Amino acid sequence: MNIYQKLVEVRKSVPYLQKDSVGKQYNYNSGSQVVAAVRGKMDELSLLLIPEIVGHALHAETVEYTEGNKPKKTTTYFTEVDLIMTWVNAEAPEERIRIPWYSQGVDIAGEKGVGKAASYGEKTFLIKQFNIPTDELDADAFQGKLDKSSGRKSNAIAQLKSAWIGAGFAANLLIPQIKKKFGCGISDLNEAQVDELIADIRAKGSEPA
Question: Which of 11, 100, 109, 166 has the largest count of CB atoms under 10 Å?
């Protein structure tokens, strides 16, 4: 059996995955669930998957704000990794398939970004490689819903930033104000919340929203 035939057999062995984890905004398939679903068949067929990080980038954003009378600071780390996922037929190691892949991870502490990005990359790669059907509310479906409205939302957030700065407020105070008012980050705002903030800014003029 060649490497392509083995991949087809793995694909046949996982007809569907039920979501098994619950997040703040959606239910999703965990990495351990996805790996466990294919590992047994991979072992049976002597099929290896070797991930390799060939590039990475780290972005950090620090927000300083005051809570009560105490100054606070939060740093968010966004890690991007470029991967090569290589399938190897262990019974004929010269049979290999190399597939470029990309992943990302967000972390507050700073030391787990690469691990999160690599783990998420492995999970999404396996789901896409084997065309595994998952629940309508999994992470990928949720991202698809965001993509449909991303243009409208990006434009609304751009208008919010413009209104804030135009009213004379420092740019780095916007995110703490959003956290104080809605308890979330700027990217988590819905369109109604953005509209409310813009209305507050325009109504109060030089006063904080």
Answer: 11
If 0-12 CB within 10 Å is exposed, 13-18 middle and 19+ buried, where does residue 207 land? exposed
Characterize 126-144 residue by residue with b for buried, 16 or more Cβ atoms within 10 angstroms of its Cβ, and e for exposed: bbebbebebbeebbeebee
Decide if pLDDT at 49 tops 90: yes
**Rounded CA gap, 25 and 34, in Å?**
20
C-alpha torsion angle, residues 21, 27, 31, 34 (rounded to 10): 100
CB atoms closer than 10 angstroms to residue 177: 18
Domains of the chain: 1-132 (3.30.390), 138-209 (no CATH)
Transcribe 117-185 into DSSP letters: HHHHHHHHHHHHHTT--B-TTSHHHHHHHHHHHHHHHHHHHHHHHHHHHHTT--GGGHHHHHHHHHSS-
Distances (CA, A) of 21 to 14, 113, 148: 18, 20, 24
